[in-house]
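Whether sequence alone determines local backbone shape is best considered at the level of individual chains. When preparing material for the folding task, we compiled for one chain both its residues and its backbone structure tokens. No coordinates are needed to read the tokens, only the vocabulary itself. For completeness, the protein is quoted in full, as a sequence line and a line of structure tokens:
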Amino acid sequence: MIKPLPPITAAAHEAGHALDRGAAAREHLMAQATRIFAAKGFAGASTREICDAAGVNVAAIHYYFGDKEGLYRAVLARPLAEMMAGFGRFDDPALALEDALGMFLAPFLDMVACSDPDDLEAHVMRLHLREMLEPTPAFREITAQIIVPVHNALTTVLARHCGLEQPDTDISRLSFAIVAMANDYCMSREFMQMLAPDVLAGADAPSRSLECLVGYACALVEYEKARRAKHGKAVGKPARSAKTVSKSTPTTPPAAEHASKHAAPHATKRRKTATKTPIKNGASHASSRTASTRRR
């Protein structure tokens, strides 16, 4: 028999409200911190200014984040972590290339263009653009924790579809090209609005753009496969390093090798002649001494 749940007490109800208020205060603090950090950077923003804008006590930063640096890390990391979570299992080996790229590129296009310059997403973009120009230690740390694993997963997918056992430098170049196409929809939205506003207009704009980006990305993969075949980097084998090439490639030029083969027999004959000559001269010298002794 299933026991009925105990009734919610007034104390538990109040505790739930307190948790909700705490979560709301934390979210509001992060939103205001994002706006101020985006405008002034980490060094230029003060904790008092952030707390005044959020309407909380200065001690709130210590309570929720430990210190100013902890708040900054949280502000930087959360939008990246949310975006990475949106990729799903795009690196599943069972997926076709188009499906894998579609899952990977879709989160870039989920960030629709906004006309309000005070929108939170706009501040997030400004903050990350600031970090691109002047990266802080916190941003480098977050990149290593969040972005590097996704980059490694993408290069593994691309290498597999190029017939390679493991990614190499050219596969990284390919991944950067694919990400760059999609990244414009996040980082250059205002520029795109000025140049071609119709690209971002309409409810179906993200789906239409995604379809095109997946097609472009697949074309880049096909180009990379053809380029490798043309330049002797056989599909299915990792590109060899310079050290491997230097060990396996003969250093003797073909012409010198040909001349060496023809000169070898003559050199051998000269060595044999030189070996026999001292013996012959020695025998002649001994014969001469014998004849002289007999005359005496």
In short: Confidence is low (pLDDT under 50) at residues 1-6, 11-16, 235-296. The two ends are 140 Å apart (CA to CA).
